[in-house]
Amino acid sequence: MAVTVTILCENTVGRAIPAIGEHGFACLVETPQARILLDSGQGLGIERNAQVLDKDLGGLTAAVLSHGHYDHAGGFDQVLRHTGPLDLFAHPAIFAERYSRTAHSLRFIGIPQRRELLETLGARFRFTPEFCEIAPQVFVTGRVERTTDFESGDPNLVVRTATGDFVPDPFDDDMALVVRSERGLIVVLGCAHAGMINTLRHIRRQLPGETIHAVLGGTHLGPAGPEQFRRTLEELEVFAIEKIGVSHCTGQTRAAQVRERLGQRFFFASVGAVLEV
């Protein structure tokens, strides 16, 4: 089955096209039977970049939200104005009240639009807390089980509880998209808040015996400490992945280090990057 993955939103523009870079992520996955949008960036570049890359947002068959952060969900109101009624697959915890907290600031980073607005525009939320097939040979992971001892998450990302307290965000809603191709599985990460290795292990348990051909998207290795980064690179070798394209929350420094380690298997999954299998 032929599969094409096109990066529509990302922090950088990777080639000489009149597109917009933004802190966020979105990509279009196309198979013979489906056109699925994973995430929508902040909303600054999704429409323009789709036009520049000659990708019709109106022709989507479904959309997926990897987790409930503004830089992945902020453009869905624009997308829905192109598509009309559209199935939007997500974990039921996407609307948690999320913040980025430092010693000097508290900043809301959850989904900027109310659920009611998105539903008025045509969003048909299909909640997927568990691994499931959403189109022929296309799956979402649902909640990713945490099994590693080194992927601890970002303590600056918190949620407000019903009592008004702030606690570390468990990211129960963090999930990835998986596409079965003739060369193996293609895994598309939004941010991998659950951990890149946790996510790949989870997929292996759900689809035992299948090889992972490519992984691309946000890895959240940017804020990872040295030990987590080292262990992640070591564990990646176990999966024998042929193509790894990093985006967004990987950060430029970590991306360069991954490139140094992986060599020709690596690519920058910036705006305009295309993976064809």
UniProtKB/TrEMBL annotation:
PANTHER family the UniProt entry points to: METALLO-BETA-LACTAMASE SUPERFAMILY PROTEIN, METALLO-BETA-LACTAMASE SUPERFAMILY PROTEIN (AFU_ORTHOLOGUE AFUA_3G07630)
Top-level taxon of the source organism: Bacteria
Organism name: Desulfuromonas thiophila
Gene Ontology molecular function: any one: transferase activity
Gene3D superfamilies listed in its UniProt record: Ribonuclease Z/Hydroxyacylglutathione hydrolase-like
Domain Metallo-beta-lactamase per the UniProt entry, residue ranges: 23-248
Pfam families to which the protein is assigned, alphabetical: Lactamase_B
Protein name (record): 7,8-dihydropterin-6-yl-methyl-4-(Beta-D-ribofuranosyl)aminobenzene 5'-phosphate synthase
High-level lineage: Bacteria, Pseudomonadati, Thermodesulfobacteriota, Desulfuromonadia, Desulfuromonadales
InterPro entries referenced in this protein's UniProt entry, alphabetically: DHPS-like_MBL-fold, Metallo-B-lactamas, Metallo-beta-lactamase_dom, RibonucZ/Hydroxyglut_hydro
